[in-house]
Amino acid sequence: MLFLKRIGERPEPAPPPEWKDAGCWMASRNTGVFLLDIRGYLLLVNPGLARLTGYAENELRGRHFRRLLSPGAAWTLFRLIHRVWTRKEARLLTARLRRSDSEWRDIELLIQPVGEKNQEIAGFIGHIWDVSARPEPCFFSGKFSLCSPGGLPEEIPAAEKSGENALIRICPAAIAVLNHDFRVERINRAFERLFGYGIRDAEGRLLGDLIIPESLRDQAPETGWRMPDGEKGEVYSLRRRQDGRHINVGINIAPVMPEGRSAGIYVVYRDRTPDRERENEIRFRTSNDTVTGLLNREAFYRQLKWRIREPLTTGTTGWTLLHMDIERFRVINEAIGYKEGDEVLALLGRRLMVALRQSDLVSRIGSDEFLLLIGGVVDKTDLLHLTKKIRNVVSQVIQLDERQFVLQPRFGAARFPADGRSAPRLLKCAEMALYSAKEKGEEIHFFTEDIHARILERIDLEQSLRKALRRDEFVLHYQPLVNDRYDVVGMEALVRWQHPEKGLLDPGSFIPMAEETGLIVPLGKQILRLACRQGRELQKSMGRNLFISVNLSARQFRDPCLADQVLAAISDAGLQPETLKLEITESAIMEDPDDAVEKMRRLTAAGTQFSVDDFGTGYSSLSQLRRFPIDTLKIDKSFITNKTGKKNGVTEQEIVKAIISMARDLGICVIAEGVETKTQKKFLDHHGCRIMQGFYFSHPLPYEQIQTIFTRVSRLRLDHPSGAGQTPPAGAA
Fold first, then answer.
1. 10-residue averages of pLDDT along the chain (733 residues)
2. How many CB atoms lie under 10 A from the CB of residue 370?
3. Of 221, 247, 276, at which residue does a domain stop?
4. Which of 11, 265, 272, 457 is the most buried (most CB within 10 A)?
């Protein structure tokens, strides 16, 4: 059921009271000017709009403005008004207008909000120009020419000022009306808020003396400077407030033209300070590191490309690119936390800025990596002096809460143009030089072509390592562990690479690369399974349980799956867990003691034993190691082969005796590595070391030649009849 009610004609909307005195001014304008309410209905129109549309003024009032535009432009107008409403700023639209005679005109339309700042918008002021028929400058047109040279009238007719003042007063933009001498006649409240001047402060004064900095007056559009013909748009510049503070503003100018005659100019200002601040912040964030404030990688790269072209125009003698990193920063970061680590990095950035000249560039490109571009310094002696200065500044003690840290930088240097003539080449050369400095333990290393060759070799090595893992090219050699009676009590499995082209390679030629690339984890897993399988076969052939010793790398020991891998290898090979001894360095254990204890206890609960390899070379003590389930210490061979040497005033022999004595008191077995002579063995026998290993007994040999090991040890036993005998196995694999 439908009910209809006659409500009569819709009353014509009326403008707010404060707009009624604008009619006189609107009537005098040649440009189309109108007032809209918040719904888009026309409240007031001037004769210029009536002439442009072909409708009478009374026909236009009360009509919705979108009915004058093309359908597509009407929808665009809706979105434009919405933006003016929400953002409270003027918007410009190019559209097509349909006249009463159905003729289409191309127009420019400016919509401005009406209402006091921070208050509800009361409506909109609109300005329309027929862009094809009227190219002359008009109110808010954005053209920056002043007036024709025909002369200016002394004053604007008083009859027109009342309506004009009403519009200027309610306009949200800052407006100053100047006479032909560029002196202020009127300003609105928005101008007072923006610049701090009242009408009494500004009236009659030159605008340049009020708000234009002296250095900018020669080209200020408000004081007569002319833009080139046809130039449009808003000019952005600095202006001075009454309190002396400078602000960024957008400036638009239009002539005052009562009855078609030029009588002065309108100057319209828009505060762009918040926009510029946002732009500066965005620009900073896209070009600078957020932690240190230094340039980021992309911004540094752009500067590098520009600066290495600079010698062609400025005569700069050359550039040096330093790639710097901080030793062991990852350990510091993990120890104190990432937030505090960022504070350390921020302090480091400030120190680098202090150490360098203002013309040099500094960038943070990674966690602890920095790039430094130094101009005019390419001599090695000068660069060594410079890096020493940087090191002294960077390595000053950092106090963070109760902790103190010392940062140690390392440098790789590449010079332009000697090492490269392009930005990518220089970056690569500096990176390779830094890598070489790390490899050799140097504080600074200069790029040379042989570094490049070594890098290529390392790339080839990594690729070959991956292939070798897939092809099972790694084999095990075994070295015996012999007791004081010349009995072989165990075997240590030592990896070798049976390279298809280079032959048998020692671990020193590939283990560091495997550690660096992470390939040590799958390699260690492969070695472990092979050692368990061959160890079980050896035990069967001998009829007794020799223990098998397998080395674990630090990275492999950190693998959370280590315990599962070890137990799976033991189970698959059928090896008794108590005959497997896992060797790990003391530094690897102390890296994360809690995690180490958990893994070791799980494996020792299954019967597996642990041995600390190279004991004495780290910084831990026996008292620290007591918390770990360890049953064997291996004295590093450096203490055995250098008996006459001293460490901190103590001879190597005294260190060995102390280790043996303390380990015996703690119930820990001791194995001496690197025994190469009979004299060394006698020394160890005399001081109670019962198990030894070294070339004196046998070099490492492949599994297929393991019988040779027993034969060699048997001959040594026969030379020392005091030792108990041992019968070699009848046939060892």
1. 39 47 46 83 86 89 86 74 76 83 85 68 80 44 31 38 60 84 88 91 89 83 54 73 89 71 78 75 81 90 84 64 88 78 88 88 91 87 90 86 83 90 91 88 87 81 92 95 92 95 92 89 95 94 89 91 94 94 88 89 94 72 76 87 56 84 86 91 90 94 92 85 44 34
2. 26
3. 276
4. 265
Q: Are 588 and 557 in contact (CB under 8 A)?
A: yes
CA distance 148 to 509: 87
Provide the pLDDT for residue 649.
46
d(CA 316, CA 30) in angstroms, rounded, equals: 61
Per-state percent for the chain, helix, strand, coil, to nearest 5:
45, 25, 35
Residue 358 lies in a domain: yes
Backbone angles phi, psi at 88, to 5 degrees: 55, 50
CATH number at residue 240: 3.30.450.20
Residue type, 191: F
Q: What span, in angstroms and rounded, lies between the C-alpha atoms of 511 and 230? A: 73
Q: What sign for the dihedral angle of Cα 51, 54, 56, 58? A: negative
What range defines the domain where residue 468 resides? 461-718
Task: Return phi, psi of residue 225, to 5°.
Answer: -65, 135
Q: CB of 326 within 8 A of CB of 393?
A: no
Scanning the structure block, which residue is given the tokens 């494996």? Answer: 603
Among 214, 36, 219, 188, smallest CA distance to 126 is for 36
Same domain, 536 and 431: no
Tokens of 61: 């009032």
Judgement on whether residues 638 and 532 belong to the same structural domain of the protein: yes
Place of tokens 């040379």: 448
Q: Is 455 a domain residue?
A: no
Looking at the 3D structure of the chain, how many domains does it have?
4
Backbone angles phi, psi at 148, to 5 degrees: -70, 155
H or E stretch at 73 = helix 71-87
Domain boundary among 276, 311, 336: 276
Whether the bond between 417 and the residue before it is cis, its omega within 30 degrees of 0, is yes
Torsion angle (degrees, nearest 10) of CA 683, 687, 689, 692: 0
Question: Are 509 and 618 in a shared domain?
Answer: yes
Residues 429 and 483 in one domain: no
Angle between helices 652-665 and 678-686 (to 10 degrees): 40
Q: Which H or E element spans position 83?
A: helix 71-87
User: Per the domain annotation, does 208 fall within a domain?
Assistant: yes
User: Do 545 and 520 belong to one domain?
Assistant: yes
Cα 182–184–190 angle (5° rounding)?
125
DSSP secondary structure letter of residue 439:
H
- The H or E element that residue 455 is part of is helix 449-471
Residue type for position 668: I
Asked if 383 and 490 sit in the same domain, the reply is: no
Placement of tokens 């690339």 in the chain: 517
Parallel, antiparallel or unpaired: strands 235-240 and 361-364:
unpaired
Instruction: Tell me what pLDDT residue 577 has.
Output: 94
Structure tokens at 558: 């950190």
